[in-house]
Structure formats: structure tokens, C-alpha cells
Specification:
By secondary structure, the chain is mainly beta. The chain contains 3 helices and 23 strands. The protein has a single domain, classed as Porin, CATH 2.40.160. Strand 11 and strand 12 (282-292) form a beta hairpin.
């Protein structure tokens, strides 16, 4: 062991001596050449000296010269945040419908969303560019969402005061406690998108509104004013078949619904409000709405058109933690202002609506939710007496039970989901099974179905049974 240490020490000493000599040699300069030697040696025959010295590599300079470092070229950046996705959706009916195309969906969609923020304001624009060969008409109609452009949002958000937010322009609005069941949410819905397999976000249609939110320590208040009526994107036969009471059968493209829509600015307007606060861990809210039935709920026989009668809705809700889950209650009084007594067979009667729901995680990555929903018609006796001969009467009370099941697998990249509506009073149902797989950070594939069934053609879900379909979608997000 000692010998090895000495050997290493001796070698280090020799190396140090040699290094010292090199340093001294460098400092003193080169020694003179011996006598008889001088200048550069001659090159061998056939080899010529270069005319000049080669250029130094980029960034290097001769002694005494300095070269400034290269100036970096800044990368181009947009002055606003941009995101979106591209998606293909294909769907086919599982049975023959003589009044509709076999394809329920066959579209390519590009959504672009741009957002720019400032200190107290933000601007957001979100638009879908769509090629949809299932429809025969492709001219743009921003109200119905038809055509190659669907403007989803174009709104300015401003916070002029610490307790006030303003949202102005086209926007997606929602409130209430229901899971795919709506009582006090009187903002427009897109039932066509919902029934053909588009993403659930497309169930909500845009509103052209001014919304104000006031925040105080006692209460919070939301006010929404729409200067012109924004109806649902309802089932009219152009894409999905429905029950036509005038014909007494299921119809489609052969009998597309014609409507007389309120569309005068600042006259055919809508106003909605919500007052809410937290009470002992429960979110309590009161709601009000003045406007029109969102889907056709009346008829004008002289014009041969469906109508949107005036409507007022007043209700409330509670939502909070119950036994490790979330429970909710909601109710609403639908005041059909053009038929208070219920004796006009051409206008839908007033109703009471009620919803109770509960959702919780029953196991790791497994969530279940159930709801009970009731529609109770007022003035039912007058309704039955005024009903024209041959018309199928509605039930006084319509009951609906919903079930949601969601299971996550593979680090939540695989999602199995099911949502179902079942009405024991109408004896019909609507089922929405779906499988989604997140392939990577950008790609998502989905497979699902919309399954309708009913004993009778004139019940709400039963009328859509010829629209039962399966669909496949592939989305790339960025």
C-alpha cells in the first residue's frame, strides 16, 4: 500500500516539474535556432504554399480583434392566446327512416378560440368552421347554427368596479342544478347536436346578451338581458324525425316545421335573473325569467306555422353536501301567459316542475348520479275538454328518472360513461352510452350511441325512436 502511494506521488512530482518547465519556456520565448538554420523550411516538390491564410471559423477573430455575438432573432408570437381543435364525426342510424338520411352525422369541424386580456377587460372569440354534408342547405344562419360557420362566442368581459362584472355579446350561459335536466335555465339549447353525438358542450347554444354580475357580502345577483329572443335549436324534421300531431304520425324532411318566431329587437326581448348566496354550506338561489317558450309551444292554423307563446318562469334551488355526495333540489313555476286557464288547445298549459338529484363517488374512479324529474300540468281539466278530436292527450304528470355512471381507467385516459332517461309515465327512454380514450396530449377518440324507444309515437322520447344512432369521433386538440 505504501509503495503505491509513493509511486503516485513521484509521478505527480515529475508532472509538476515538466509543467513548470513548459511555463518557463513559454514566458521566456523560443530559443534561437542553431547556426545554419533559419527561416521556414522549404516545401516538398509539387506542393505550393497557399496564397493566403484560410478564414477563421465564424465567431473567431485574429489576435486583438473582437467579434460581436450574433443577435438572436425573436420567435413570432401572436398578440393573443389561441387554442382549438379539429374533429371528425360520423354517425349512422341503426334502422331505416324513410323521411331522413341514413347518416345521422358526417362532419368535419375546426374550432378556433382566441382570447386577449387586459387589466380589467378580456375579449374572447370562439368560432366553429364546419363541413356538414347531412344537411342540404349550407348558407350561414348564426341563430340556428346552420351553415359552414357557427359563431359560438364573441364577448367582451369588463370589470369596471370590484363588485361588478359585465359580459357583452354572444356568449354561452348556464345556471341551475340539474344534470342534463333544465328547469330555471331558460338559455337556448341545441337538441339536434345532443341527439346525434356531438360533444355535450354543444347542447348549450349561444345567446346574444348583456350579462351583469353583482357581488356583495349578503347576496349575489346575476342579470341577463337579451334584446332579441334566442330560441332553442329545436327538432324540426330537417335532420331528425319527430311526431307531427297535425299529421298524426312521425314526420321528417317531408314536413319540416315552419315557425313564426319573435324577432323584433328590443320588443321581443328576454330578461332573466338569479339571486344566490351560501347558507350553512348550501348554495341557495332564486330565479326569474320573462320571455317565450324556448321551443315551439303553440300553433297558428291560419298561417300553418308553429309559434312561441309568451312565458314567465319563477323558481328556486338548493345544492350542498349530503352523506359524502352532492344533493340538489330545484323547482319552477312555468306561467304560460297566453293561456292562464289552460283552455286554449293551441297554446301549451302552465306547469309546475320539480327536480331532486344526488351524485357521489361510490368507488375509486367510479361516480354515480340519479335524478327524479316531474312535470305537472296545470288546468288539466280544461286542457282535456278543449283538446281537438283525434289528438293524443298528454298525461297530467310526466315522471322521468335519470341515471349517470362514469368509470375511469388507465390513469383516467379511458372513460366509460352512461347517461339514461326513463319515463314510467310515458313508457319511453333515451340512453347515451359512450367510450372515450385519450390517446395522447392531443388526440381523443370516442364511440357512442343515442338510443330511443317508446311504446307510443307521440311521447317525448318515443317520437325519436327512428333516430337511434351510433357514432364515432376523432379529435385533435391544440
Amino acid at each position: 500500500m505504501k509503495t503505491a502511494q509513493i509511486g503516485r506521488t513521484g509521478f505527480s512530482g515529475v508532472a509538476a516539474l515538466v509543467l513548470s518547465g513548459v511555463l518557463v519556456f513559454s514566458l521566456r520565448g523560443q530559443p534561437p535556432l542553431p547556426a545554419g538554420l533559419g527561416g521556414e523550411p522549404d516545401l516538398p516538390p509539387g506542393i505550393e504554399a497557399p496564397a493566403s491564410e484560410p478564414d477563421l471559423p465564424s465567431g473567431l477573430a485574429a489576435s486583438g480583434e473582437t467579434v460581436p455575438p450574433p443577435v438572436p432573432v425573436p420567435a413570432f408570437t401572436l398578440p393573443f392566446r389561441l387554442s382549438g381543435f379539429a374533429e371528425g364525426l360520423a354517425g349512422v342510424r341503426t334502422q331505416r327512416d324513410p323521411d331522413e338520411k341514413d347518416l345521422s352525422a358526417g362532419e368535419v369541424r375546426l374550432q378556433l378560440e382566441g382570447e386577449k386580456g387586459w387589466d380589467r377587460a378580456a375579449l374572447r372569440v370562439r368560432a366553429d368552421f364546419l363541413f356538414d354534408p347531412v344537411l342540404d342547405r349550407h348558407s350561414i344562419d348564426l341563430e340556428s347554427g346552420r351553415g359552414w360557420l357557427d359563431l359560438r362566442e364573441a364577448r367582451l368581459t369588463v370589470t369596471p368596479l370590484s363588485f361588478l362584472d359585465l359580459k357583452l355579446g354572444r356568449q354561452i350561459l348556464t345556471w341551475g342544478t340539474g344534470d342534463l335536466v333544465f328547469i330555471n335555465d331558460l338559455f337556448p339549447k341545441d337538441w339536434k347536436s345532443f341527439f346525434i353525438g356531438r360533444d355535450a358542450e354543444y347542447l348549450k347554444a349561444p345567446s346574444d346578451s348583456a350579462a351583469a354580475s353583482f357581488f356583495t357580502s349578503a347576496l349575489n345577483l346575476d342579470l341577463v338581458y337579451s334584446p332579441r329572443f334566442d330560441p332553442d335549436r329545436y327538432i324540426d324534421g330537417s335532420r331528425l324525425s319527430y311526431y307531427n300531431p297535425m299529421l298524426g304520425r312521425i314526420a321528417g324532411r317531408d314536413a319540416v316545421i315552419r315557425v313564426e318566431e319573435p324577432e323584433t329587437w328590443f320588443t321581443d326581448d328576454e330578461l332573466a335573473f338569479r339571486i344566490y348566496r351560501n347558507i350553512a354550506g348550501w348554495e341557495a338561489a332564486l330565479y326569474g325569467y320573462r320571455g317565450y317558450w324556448k321551443s315551439p309551444a303553440g300553433d297558428d292554423p291560419a298561417a300553418g306555422k308553429a309559434t312561441f307563446p309568451r312565458l314567465g318562469v319563477y323558481g328556486g334551488s338548493l345544492r350542498g353536501v349530503v352523506s359524502g355526495g352532492i344533493g340538489n333540489l330545484e323547482f319552477g313555476f312555468y306561467d304560460s301567459e297566453e293561456d292562464h286557464s289552460g283552455s286554449d288547445p293551441l297554446v301549451r298549459n302552465s306547469e309546475l316542475r320539480f327536480l331532486a338529484g344526488y351524485e357521489r363517488e361510490v368507488a375509486a374512479n367510479f361516480t354515480a348520479g340519479v335524478q327524479y324529474y316531474l312535470e305537472y300540468m296545470l288546468g288539466y281539466g280544461n286542457y282535456r275538454e278543449s283538446l281537438p278530436p283525434g289528438q293524443h292527450p298528454r298525461d297530467e304528470a310526466r315522471h322521468v328518472i335519470t341515471l349517470r355512471l362514469t368509470r375511469l381507467f388507465f390513469r383516467q385516459n379511458l372513460i366509460l360513461s352512461f347517461f339514461g332517461y326513463y319515463s314510467p309515465s310515458d313508457r319511453d327512454f333515451y340512453l347515451r352510452p359512450k367510450v372515450s380514450y385519450k390517446i395522447d396530449d392531443h388526440w381523443t377518440a370516442s364511440l357512442g350511441g343515442n338510443i330511443f324507444w317508446g311504446e307510443d309515437d307521440w311521447t317525448f322520447f318515443g317520437q325519436f325512436k327512428k333516430n337511434t344512432n351510433v357514432y364515432l369521433s376523432l379529435r385533435y386538440g391544440f
